[in-house]
Amino acid sequence: MTIQKTIAKQRRRRVYRVRNQVRIAGRPRLSVFRSGRHMYAQIIDDNAGRTLVSASSAEKDFSSPKTSTCEAASLVGKLLGERAVKAGISKVAFDRGPYRYHGRVAALADGARASGLEF
Known about the structure:
Elements: H1 3-23, E1 29-34, E2 39-45, E3 50-56, H2 69-86, E4 93-95, H3 104-114
Parallel strand pairs: 1-4
Antiparallel strand pairs: 1-2, 2-3
Helix pairs in contact: 2-3
């Protein structure tokens, strides 16, 4: 097996492990995706299979003057939290996916907590 296949297999295993723990909570899931340039977050209702609220740093109305990636992630978290509170969502389960709770992922979580989400 090649290195790439091994790494992909380990990543899928981490994702499944985290998602299975999160789904036990019975709350909507705050899912995070981190690309090289942008941060994406969405709150998903797994029972209905649809996205309730989303936010990302790639949106047109996301205006961020040349900030660091952690600051942009924090702003995305605040924006997502504000939209969630407006939609009547107050408690979610945090799904970090295959990413460690560190850096941009932690900044997004802190921003969401600052705007009123509980997890």
